[in-house]
Amino acid sequence: MKELISVSFGEIALKGLNRRYFEDQLIKNIRRAIKDLNIERIYKEQGKVYIEAPKPNFPKIISRLKKVFGLVNISPCIRVDKTMEAIEEASIKAITSKDDGIRTFKVQTNRADKNFPIKSPEVSRIMGGIVLNKFSDLKVDVHNPDMYLYIDIKQNAYVYTEKIRGYGGLPIGTNGKALLLLSGGIDSPVAGFMMAKRGVEISAVHYHSYPFTSERSEEKVKELAGILSRYTGKIKMYSVNILEIQKQINLKCKENEMTILSRRFMMRLAEKIAEKEGLNGLITGESLGQVASQTIEGIGVTNASVKLPVFRPLIGFDKVDIVHIAKDIETYETSILPFEDCCTVFLPKHPVTKPKLEDILKSEELLDVEYLVDEALENMKVTVIE
Ligand code: ATP
Ligand code: MG
User: 142 or 343, which is more confident?
Assistant: First the structure.
């Protein structure tokens, strides 16, 4: 009898020919997430991955696994030989260790090994009878039980009572790489999370206006990247000072075009970094209509500054829904810390809400765009966040 942890994955099981590749990447990601927790063995058995480690480490391992994309369920379980006696012993042990207020149960058996002589419903019936005998305060409820007793019969038999939800999604590394425009706000960390959940490896770029913005606001963004990296693994973060760009726009262009013009610079800078680093796209936290620069016209004009695909996973989300995710992934408390953002430095009182591309292009003729971009990138700093 061995206590271990099992994980199941949803969507990747459907990916046909790619399945092997997805599974291998997932196991790699699992290994990386828990490598410092005395892992003894990780193996696959018929559609699930099993992890052997010292039992005191289970809570830590489970909490890390919950952040690995591609996992649907995580279960502490007991592995035994494929005999009814051994399954009985494991079932009693599994139920005994669950003390809290359970009155009803249901046994659910899955017999993947069709050579096992007893069929699933029969295994469930027999084990149900044994449990009823052993635990006089428990009753069977097949519709809405307080607890399931799961029995998987494969190469070995596995018995467990818990299914802890993971985030689902796809393993990071199976869907390319993208550069997240990471501000200190609520939205962009959530946007990065959403894309990472679809298997995208994330790098980040942050724009600041030091010394107009403080070092502490820079730290805040690093902290956000740190929280994100619990899900994504290490994040390469680029910090770019755009103060000179903002000063030039402020000096030469219309006040109400400040926001849209600096947005276009942010996109251009990001695209240059992405191209140099071989990344496949950009990610922003934009949500349609949320602020003056995120009108459909504003986004259109912003978008026209680059060729790379720009992913906006929050485009159709209401703020309350974004906040809900931000709280769940634990970026919210950091995001609402009151530090100035580079965009607030030269904030126009009445930003254009329906910019026209031809007007904006005309305004940009007053600036040495290429020079400003190159100069900003020359002084870029790179940090690796873990
Ligand atoms: P957020 O909550 O992510 O800051 P927001 O609602 O404040 O978003 P904006 O300030 O209009 O929206 O920014 C839109 C998007 O542009 C952000 O989600 C982010 O991807 C990018 N962005 C804005 N400011 C910065 C910055 N200083 N550094 C990097 N990216 C930025
Ligand atoms: Mg912002």
Answer: 142
